[in-house]
């Protein structure tokens, strides 16, 4: 698409607080292009429903903020939610916190609990299992007889099986974890959500916590060699983590560890269908799979934003940010920044360099980035050579969200060996 469409700049800013905009690529990117071009650090004072925030839309400005994690902190407003939810989070903060809610030094200590599990050396030990699960997913496509909802029947299941296998959880529990994840991230989507009120969102978290508290009790009584045991028995300064912090560790890994990857996989295949010449390139040159996956991650950008709050007055992009004001780091915009990416609205499986910010940057860079890349590479390395042809079997549907999301339905017809 072109970034030249005229959009009222205030309307463009309001788009960032509208969950339906993220299910409409053309509308979203017309707004983001206008913001980058005309007012890249833009004050959004949308509606009584939301507290004001600065929209940061250029790649360089997002990096500048993320690089200074003491000047721009996660607390008290780590993601964009309604003013009512902001108030509720402030009142129930300890119960609602995960790694994305906290700052150093606590963030560094909590991150260290699981960091070793996601280092490249550790992940190489599970690569055989990841490839096995990728093959099982493509075999499942073949068994489905040439038609499926790829988003629901393949893209969701595969990374969920990987991350929950890493945790050491039984496959019989996977449907429950999937439901809770979709309710947590899908609170703006009528199909996925349990409810929109702060109390209903809290109940989703409490259901997660209830499940994982039972896992913690079991792993403390009967420790094993899985990630769940590492979390359950972790100590900081000689003390076990609190029940809330243990459960929060599980929740962030079990949700972010699969939902973002499933969005990348579904959106990546949809992009290959939209640009069949790129699918042909991958068939001819399978060595492009790693760069193709990076392009899918850029193209989909499953995490739409994180918020930061200024601890001191600061000038960013020519605008004065006052201490206590919030900034929204807009990753879909940064990943289409014309100053960084040549022809950013072209899907290019050989794009190099590809300095996307889909995993964030700096102290809060995504802990599971290496695993997400491994999963997507394994899936497409298995799928592309076996997929003889593929076409839509209906309209794709994206989730309404302002935080995490992507394709929720991708009906396909195909022939697969």
From TrEMBL:
UniProt keyword terms in alphabetical order: Cytoplasm, Heme, Iron, Metal-binding, Monooxygenase, Oxidoreductase
GO cellular component, one term: cytoplasm
SUPFAM superfamilies: Cytochrome P450
PROSITE patterns per UniProt: CYTOCHROME_P450 (PS00086)
Keyword set includes Nucleotide-binding: no
MF annotations from Gene Ontology: cholest-4-en-3-one 26-monooxygenase activity; heme binding; iron ion binding; steroid hydroxylase activity
Keyword GTP-binding: no
Gene3D superfamilies, per the entry: Cytochrome P450
Subcellular location: Cytoplasm
InterPro entries: Cyt_P450 (IPR001128), Cyt_P450_B (IPR002397), Cyt_P450_CS (IPR017972), Cyt_P450_sf (IPR036396)
PANTHER family reported in the protein's UniProt record: BIOTIN BIOSYNTHESIS CYTOCHROME P450, P450, PUTATIVE (EUROFUNG)-RELATED
Membership in a protein family: Belongs to the cytochrome P450 family.
Stated name of the protein: Cytochrome P450
């Amino acid at each position: 698409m072109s970034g030249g469409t005229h959009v009222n700049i205030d309307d463009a800013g309001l788009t960032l607080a509208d969950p339906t905009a993220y299910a409409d690529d053309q509308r979203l990117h017309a707004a983001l292009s206008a913001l980058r071009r005309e007012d890249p650090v833009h004050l959004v004072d949308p509606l009584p429903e939301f507290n004001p925030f600065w929209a940061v839309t250029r790649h360089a400005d997002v990096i500048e903020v993320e690089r200074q994690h003491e000047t721009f902190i996660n607390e008290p407003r780590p993601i964009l939610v309604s003013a009512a939810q902001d108030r509720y989070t402030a009142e129930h903060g300890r119960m609602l916190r995960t790694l994305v809610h906290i700052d150093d030094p606590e963030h560094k200590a909590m991150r260290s609990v699981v960091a070793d599990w996601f280092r490249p050396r550790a992940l190489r030990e599970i690569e055989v299992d990841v490839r096995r699960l990728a093959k099982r997913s493509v075999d499942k496509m073949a068994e489905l007889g040439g038609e499926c909802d790829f988003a629901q029947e393949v893209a969701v299941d595969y990374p969920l099986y990987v991350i929950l296998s890493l945790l050491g959880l039984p496959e019989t529990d996977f449907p429950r974890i999937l439901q809770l994840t979709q309710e947590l991230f899908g609170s703006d989507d009528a199909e996925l959500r349990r409810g929109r009120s702060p109390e209903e969102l809290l109940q989703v978290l409490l259901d997660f916590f209830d499940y994982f508290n039972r896992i913690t009790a079991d792993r403390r009584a009967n420790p094993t060699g899985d990630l769940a045991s590492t979390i359950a028995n972790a100590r900081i300064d000689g003390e076990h983590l609190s029940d809330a912090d243990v459960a929060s560790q599980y929740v962030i890994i079990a949700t972010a560890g699969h939902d973002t990857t499933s969005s990348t996989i579904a959106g990546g295949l949809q992009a290959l269908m939209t640009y069949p010449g790129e699918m042909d390139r991958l068939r001819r040159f399978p060595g492009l799979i790693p760069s193709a996956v990076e392009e899918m991650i850029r193209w989909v950008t499953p995490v739409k934003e994180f918020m930061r709050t200024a601890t001191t007055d600061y000038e960013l992009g020519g605008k004065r940010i006052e201490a206590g004001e919030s900034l929204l780091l807009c990753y879909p915009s940064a990943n289409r920044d014309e100053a960084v990416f040549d022809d950013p609205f072209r899907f290019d499986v050989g794009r190099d360099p590809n300095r996307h910010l889909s995993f964030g940057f700096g102290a809060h860079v995504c802990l599971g980035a290496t695993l997400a890349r491994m999963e997507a590479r394994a899936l497409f390395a298995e799928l592309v050579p076996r997929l003889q042809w593929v076409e839509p079997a209906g309209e794709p549907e994206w989730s309404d969200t302002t935080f995490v999301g992507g394709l929720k339905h991708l009906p396909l017809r195909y022939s697969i060996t």
